[in-house]
Amino acid sequence: MNNDFKDIIDKIPQPLKEGDTAEGKIIGVGRSSIFLDLSPFGTGIVYGREFISVKDNVKKLKKGEKLRAKVVSPDNEDGFIELSLREAAEQSAWKEIEKIKNNDVPVKVKIIGANRGGLLTKLFNIPAFIPSSQLNPENYPKIKNPDSSKILRELQKLVGKELEVKVLDFYPKTGKLILSEKEGASQLTERILKNYRVGDIVEGEVTALMDFGAFVKFWKKPKKKNEEMEGLIHISEIDWQIVTDPSQILKVGQKLKAKIIDIDKGKVYLSLKALKENPWRKIEGKYKRGDIIKGEVKRIRPYGAFIEVEPGIYGLCHISEFGSSEKIKEELEEGKNYKFKITSFLPQENKMTLSLAK
Description:
Helix content is 15%, strand content 40%.
């Protein structure tokens, strides 16, 4: 077979099969079904239980919009490609959430649960969380001696109530949606913020823990009434060591000192590791490009592996060194030690890149 003909064959799309994800344009929306043009494969249909499960989320869909759906059956009895649109419904919901966030629009939500860190609710059927630090003063649990069980009991009193909130942060890829009852940068907030500068050392108290970091209520000494602020310590700013779970290091109610590293649009970002000695300063002359070193694989991510060279010192072995995420997992295993070659070393930027030594 000549190469030109082989190239043509290779470019012919393979038929869709059950479980595949397909994208198509809406060509019809009815009371109980949605039709998608899945050219060149044919016409897709969402109906029956699949339509009922998402009908409240797809009311605003229009002809011409693109949607992604999973193939339930590549060829049903009517000749259509049967689809599930639940993922498309989520996609539509995230788009609405993004609009609300971008336009700073308040919405009302009903509280359906509580835990020690805050309140549970849903927005467009997407599970959402309101950290207790993001509640208005009248709803914030006021307990003189912080106790997680008492805080939880106070928060549970809000279950069943409606609160007006704004979208604080959202992460469609991980399904995380964080809401805030607090108003945007009000005049009061702006006035309080004038007392703080990037670089200030503040005292604070952990009010909520999330998988991406910790919310902290903080203040300057001497502590003044009505001049407390809320800030976020991102998981990457907790310690020079890689932190995978903030709750292993920090606890709700814990008192601490932190450094303000950024103030942006009324939000304050804090750091604990900025108050600790930077381990990279100790190794500026210790390593150089081309050195062969031994390191432990700490975390494997889609873009590469983090290798611990020394306590607090991590090098990145990029995915390009392996070719694929499957290959990197074949070559490396978390918790094991391997030999690596330093391909770049920039201690002033806290950066080191590595390749697996063969």
